[in-house]
Amino acid sequence: MPTHLWRKSSYSSTGNACLYVSAPDRATIRLRESDEPDTILTTNPTALRALIRSAKAGQLDHPGTA
To answer: How deeply is 58 buried, as exposed, middle or buried, from its count of CB atoms within 10 A (0-12, 13-18, 19+)?
Structure first.
């Protein structure tokens, strides 16, 4: 399995529940959480931007309601 260069989010504290990001190429972004480092979410920059935009707009505050 290839080794990825993981960077810890600047918003993560020094304890647990830290978010790590890896971008092995321009089309791939990998995310993992420190409590479950073997579980990796793979996405692309466009999809991640859409998720972040939705979260900032509060559209994910109440899942299951439209």
So the answer is: exposed
| Mean pLDDT on 50-58 | 94
* Helix, strand, or coil (residue 48): helix
Predicted model pTM: 0.74
Condensed to tens digits (0 to 9), the pLDDT of residues 5-35 reads 999 988 777 667 799 999 999 999 999 998 8
Going by the DSSP 8-state scheme, the letter that residue 24 receives in this structure is E
* Tokens at 15, concatenated: 């304890």
Kindly state the tokens that stand for 24. Answer: 């092995």
Closest to 22 in 3D by CA, of 34, 40, 10, 35:
40
